[in-house]
Design a protein that fits this description.
InterPro entries: BTB/POZ_dom (IPR000210), SKP1/BTB/POZ_sf (IPR011333). Pfam families: BTB. This is BTB domain-containing protein. By secondary structure, the protein is mainly alpha-helical. It folds into 2 domains: about 100 residues, Potassium Channel Kv1.1, Chain A, CATH 3.30.710.10; about 110 residues, no CATH class. The chain has 13 helices and 5 strands. Strand 4 and strand 5 form a beta hairpin.
């Protein structure tokens, strides 16, 4: 199957019909409210991957008559960007975000997995968790890079909103887990106490990861731990 993987999700979602002639009709449309951005996609492709959309377009609902599903924008879930990315993933099983800022790339990945979760589309979780991990590893704290490895390097681009958004995913979701794992070093360096206090589900995930990390048998010096994301050795702050 042809796939313009070098293009970002925005270009792909707009041009998918001409790029991928393999998928002929019937086509359905996804319209995002209130912006009225609209995208065409193979009905069979969408319904095969989502029981929610299948019920819409094959059941006794207006969507099956009009062949249009209207999705209301929902912060950190339904957006033009997340729908564009979902369309690219459905066709190519990969997503490329045309975003430079590492923190915003994490936001986009979270939006995508929460949109997929909302419409019961499976198979994207591990890929996006790995994508977030790669962002974290490739973009450490600039001061930590300058002065060595004794500082938390994972959480420079992880925002309060990322933690909140991930907490809405099911327990054990790979993206929720990778963010908790990434926050271990930050928590042990006195970071994210407020989030752990305000969001019990995040606190539970974080404490499980802390226990797992500190409980691993090793020959490292006392007062140190091995970061579960990068494998680097850190000193515990007192």
């Amino acid at each position: 199957m042809a796939c313009a993987s070098e293009d970002g999700a925005q270009h792909f979602a707009t041009k998918s019909i001409s790029i991928l002639p393999l998928y002929y009709g019937p086509l359905v449309k996804i319209r995002i409210k209130p912006s009225n951005d609209e995208y065409a996609i193979s009905k069979d492709l969408l319904c095969t991957n989502s029981p929610v959309f299948s019920a819409m377009f094959k059941g006794p609902f207006k969507e099956s008559q009009q062949m249009i599903a209207e999705l209301e924008e929902m912060e950190y879930v339904v957006s033009v960007r997340s729908v564009q990315a979902l369309i690219q993933w459905l066709y190519c099983r990969t997503v490329k975000f045309s975003i430079n800022d590492p923190g915003e790339r994490i936001t986009a990945a979270l939006e995508l997995v929460r949109l997929a979760d909302k419409y019961i589309i499976v198979g994207i979780e591990a890929q996006m968790a790995q994508y977030i991990r790669e962002i974290i590893v490739a973009n450490p704290h600039p001061i930590a890079t300058l002065y060595g490895s004794r500082r938390d390097t994972n959480t420079y681009w992880i925002a309060h909103e990322h933690i909140i958004s991930a907490s809405y995913l099911r327990r054990g979701h790979p993206v929720r887990q990778i963010l908790a794992t990434a926050c271990v070093s930050g928590y042990l360096h006195h970071k994210f106490f407020k989030e752990a206090e305000e969001y019990p589900s995040f606190a539970a995930d974080l404490l499980l990861e802390v226990k797992s990390t500190l409980g691993r048998p090793n020959s490292k010096p006392a007062g140190t731990f091995e970061d579960p994301i990068t494998g680097r050795i850190f000193e515990l702050r007192k």
